[in-house]
Specification:
Structural class: alpha+beta
Number of strands: 6
Number of helices: 4
Strand content: 25-35%
Helix content: 10-25%
Order of helices and strands: HHEEEEEEHH
Distance between the termini: 87 Å
Bound molecules: zinc ion
Length: 202
C-alpha cells in the first residue's frame, strides 16, 4: 500500500516538474498533461539555425481544455517559426470550436473561432519581454496561454447560434425558429382580461 502511495506521489511530482519526460516510464497518465501537449512545441533547435531558417508545425487537436474556463474542440492549423536576429517570429492560422449559449434562444451551440497569430518570441529574453512570448531555457514554448488570449478575443460579446435565430416567444417561451405559436400574438394584461371579454362581446 505504501509503495503504491510513493509511486503515485512520484508520478504527481513528475507531472509538474521539468523531468516530465520520465513519466512515460511509469504506468498511468497525468490529469492534464496530455491535453497541453499539442501546444507545447520544442523550438530550441531553431535557435541554432541562421536567420531566415523556418519550420512549420501542424496543430491538430480534437480537444483542449485551456484553463477551466475555456473548452476548445477541433483545434486545427499550423504555426511557422522563422529565425530572426531577435528570436523566432511566429505566424499561425488556427480554427477551433467552443461551446457557447445563444443569447436569443438560450440553446447551446458550437461557435467557430478563427485566430491569426503574428508575434515575435524574443531570444534571449529581455527584462520587458512578455512572458507569453519568451523562449524558456528548455527550448519548449507553451502556446497554451497565448492561444487562450487570442481565442478569448474572438468570442462574440452577444453569441448567437446563427443569423436565422429568431429567439424565444415572449409569451410562451417557445423557440420562434420552430414555427408560429398557436396562441394569439398579443398578450392581454390579466388585470384587463374581464374588460377585454366585455368589449369583445359588445
Ligand atoms: Zn439561437
Ligand atoms: Zn409562443
Amino acid at each position: 500500500m505504501s509503495t503504491l502511495f510513493v509511486l503515485l506521489a512520484f508520478r504527481f511530482y513528475l507531472c509538474y516538474d521539468r523531468y516530465a519526460f520520465l513519466e512515460t516510464l511509469l504506468p498511468g497518465g497525468c490529469v492534464n498533461q496530455d491535453k497541453y501537449n499539442a501546444l507545447r512545441i520544442n523550438v530550441g533547435f531553431l535557435l541554432h539555425q541562421s536567420v531566415g531558417y523556418k519550420r512549420k508545425f501542424e496543430i491538430d487537436e480534437s480537444f483542449v481544455q485551456i484553463e477551466s474556463d475555456l473548452d476548445v474542440y477541433d483545434l486545427f492549423g499550423d504555426i511557422t517559426f522563422t529565425r530572426t536576429s531577435q528570436g523566432l517570429y511566429s505566424q499561425s492560422d488556427m480554427t477551433a470550436r467552443t461551446p457557447l449559449e445563444c443569447v436569443r434562444c438560450l440553446s447551446k451551440y458550437d461557435q467557430e473561432l478563427t485566430i491569426e497569430i503574428n508575434d515575435l518570441f524574443v531570444h534571449p529574453p529581455q527584462k520587458e519581454t512578455d512572458p507569453l512570448l519568451s523562449i524558456p531555457k528548455s527550448g519548449i514554448v507553451d502556446l497554451t496561454n497565448l492561444v487562450r488570449e487570442y481565442l478569448l478575443l474572438e468570442i462574440p460579446i452577444r453569441p448567437t447560434c446563427g443569423v436565422g435565430c429568431k429567439g424565444l416567444c415572449q409569451i410562451c417561451g417557445k423557440e420562434q425558429s420552430e414555427g408560429q405559436c398557436d396562441h394569439p400574438q398579443t398578450m392581454i394584461d390579466p388585470r384587463f382580461e374581464v374588460l377585454h371579454t366585455l368589449l369583445s362581446k359588445a
